[in-house]
Design goal:
With 327 residues, this protein is an alpha/beta fold. The chain is 46% helix and 9% strand. The chain is built from seven helices and five strands, in the order βαβαβαββαααα. The chain has a five-stranded mixed β-sheet with strand order 1-5-4-3-2. Helix 2 runs parallel beside helix 5.
Length: 327
Amino acid sequence: MPRAGAGGGGGHVSSGGHSSGRVSGGHRVGGSRAGSGMGNGMRGGFGGGFGRGPRFYGPRRTVYVNTGNNGNGGNGGGLFAIVVLAFFLIIMCIVFGIGSGSKTKSTIERKKLDTGNAYINDCIVDEIGWFDNVGKTEKKLKEFWEKTGVQPYIVLHAYDEELTSDSEKQEWAEQYYEEHFTVENIFLYVYFAEQNTDDSVGYMAYVNGKQTSSVMDSEAVEIFWNTLDKYWVTRMSTDDVFTNTFHDTAKTIMRVSTTGKDVMKWLLIVVAIALVASAIIWLVKTKNQRAREKAQEDERILNTPLEDIVDAKADDLTSKYLNEDQK
């Protein structure tokens, strides 16, 4: 395997064993976690073929993804419709917030690492031939380094009959970091292929350099695993699975995600503004309606002959006195 990251910056760990300053963990697509150190841990698969990797669907292929009131209804009806819509949006927001969970939420404000280490261009070791264009993918992975300061490094390790347990594979990944790198800003991802390479999903592990954990903390690693799970079961090529995973991870972890409370706060503000605006519109329309009615009444009076008005008044007086006499 090629040696990488021999440049300066970061302390080189003494040989032998796993450094307690690094964080590592394991993962299986579609299962639960139990950690090693501060990191996320192993995942037990569901079995039955669920969550198999990028080659599960047969030959790899690249997938290109193409990235008021109309009628004359009453004022009360329009206001009622706004209130109903507001409550509907609130309910949908609550349901969506509960259902979405925290799989892709970033709640921590992170800052890009400034280690002074250059980007390692040769950052993919593919022993099982899954990548279509290693050089092109390595260039795309640079975006993750530019946004986070963390150097991505991918190793697809061929089936090794000597690695019989997940813990042995985890130790292998930790030792790989120990032997191949002299910088501590690397996020090392290792995939351990099964004997049936194309039909069985293998164990995965990560190792954080000492400087990396301020960005790739446990929440960020959780986001990375969830993002990888999402793309792993698609028909994307292996190249696209990893470039999209690192791209989305960087985009998510380097900003604080909008929470359900944030959405609710802004939704309530919008609803309040809508209600106030509706009330103002209703008052203005009511005032204008009354003004139109008064103008129509004035116009009717002005257009009525004077003798008709006098006769009408006389008839009213006659009717009034007749009624009083009858009492």
